[in-house]
Design goal:
single chain; about 375 residues; mainly beta; Immunoglobulin-like; Barwin-like endoglucanases; 2 domains; 7-stranded mixed beta sheet; 6-stranded mixed beta sheet; globular
């Protein structure tokens, strides 16, 4: 496979790489199970309670575990009971916080970030309304797949319906903060950028009422209020489902965690995937000509590769030139040949190497598209 030349500053900012679509395939659907109390859903994870039929499980109204197909084919509910709101708001901009998924960079000096900061283009371009923290009940892997927290959830897009305040495009100013009765019903697209763990598994003594702010189905919106105040914005009731991200013609991007890569270690985030990534492999080639695909593992620092145990020495030029094989949660696989600009990158302290590298393609459209009313109040905010 020929490697593409480096092209800096394309329409999507980044460096293009050469790739091809390998295969496509269906995702598995889980069978149903039962629980006796809502708290049992957390304790036992109710790993198969919501797919494909939840009607027999009145105490398990929500999917548990970051299974995209499950979350896309059933309606999730934010448990809007005091003291646990269905949706809350996080002052993301004033913390220099990159979030678990490292989707936004802290600006130099002040540490401020905003919606237009460096990060996935689906978010910074306005295609997605906001980033969001997802309850650990859905953020973590609880389905026995041995995936690390966030491996499927990071970058997953959610279609959320609720009565909520209107915001400006940069999410700095809500309207009618103190008059929730005037808030319109809205459907917006959010991108999972963080986990929400605050007492997510805390329940009342009788096991019927969540007492933590990150209970099953809970969403914690990332906003950037100019006054730092996120009070009086809690959403009592919301429903949501997983959908494919509104990436349109944007390709996937490879965002490396560091400009320092070697035959022993590299780590990369996958941005703007239409549907979540399930598996990332890297092709290693030894100096004796032996080639093999190596699975990477996931952490908050991205999909990381440790190659020292695979052969004594890798071919010259690696890891400057790396072949990736990426598989979606729906079973589709694409392969990309990446030319890594180790000598020209800029390291954003505490974050990633900039700029990210453009793939040549994205996963194909799926049956889990957003509704036509999604982001209706914010379509004027889309920049490109």
């Amino acid at each position: 496979m020929l490697r593409a030349a480096l092209v800096i500053g394309t329409a999507y900012y980044g460096i293009r790489v050469e790739g091809e679509r390998i295969s496509s395939g269906p995702s598995s659907i889980l069978s149903s199970a039962s629980c006796s109390l809502p708290s049992d859903c957390i304790a036992d994870h109710c790993s198969t309670a919501c797919c494909p039929d939840r009607s027999a499980d009145p105490y398990c109204p929500n999917c548990h575990g970051a299974n995209f197909t499950c979350l896309a084919t059933s309606t999730q509910e934010g448990l809007g009971q005091d003291p646990a709101f269905g949706g809350t708001f996080n002052d993301f901009g004033y913390k220099g916080n990159t979030g678990f998924c490292k989707y936004q960079a802290p600006a130099a000096g002040s540490g401020l970030v905003n919606k237009s900061s460096m990060g996935p283009r689906a978010l910074s371009s306005g295609r997605v309304f906001a980033g969001v923290g997802l309850s650990q009940a859905q953020f973590g892997d609880m389905l026995g797949n041995a995936l690390m927290d966030g491996a499927v959830a990071c970058g997953m897009c959610l279609e959320v319906s609720a009565k909520q305040a209107l915001w400006d495009c940069d999410l700095t100013q809500p309207s009618n903060r103190y008059e929730p009765e005037t808030w319109p019903d809205q459907t917006v697209i959010l991108m999972v950028a963080d986990q929400c763990r605050d007492y997510w598994d805390s329940w009342s003594d009788d096991g019927t009422t969540p007492t933590g702010n990150c209970a099953t189905g809970h969403l914690d919106y990332d906003v950037y209020p100019s006054d730092g105040d996120v009070s009086w914005l809690g959403i009592q009731n919301l429903t949501w489902r997983a959908v494919e991200c509104p990436v349109d013609g944007l390709p996937i991007q490879f965002a490396f965690s560091s400009t320092t890569n070697s035959q022993y270690y590299l780590s990369v985030h996958l941005w703007d995937a239409r549907v979540p990534v399930d598996r990332v492999e890297i092709e290693a080639e030894c100096s004796n000509g032996t080639k093999f695909w190596v699975d990477t593992e996931f952490s908050s620092n991205g999909w990381f590769y440790q190659g020292q145990s695979h052969c004594l020495d890798l071919v010259a030029g690696w890891p400057t030139n790396v072949n990736f094989r990426v598989t979606s949660v729906l079973g589709e696989t694409i392969q990309e040949a990446v030319s890594v600009p180790i000598d020209t990158w800029t390291q954003v302290e505490g974050w990633i190497a900039w700029p990210p590298l453009n793939a040549t393609t994205n996963f194909e459209r799926s049956e889990y598209s957003q509704s036509t009313k999604a982001n209706a109040h914010y379509r004027h905010c889309v920049k490109y």
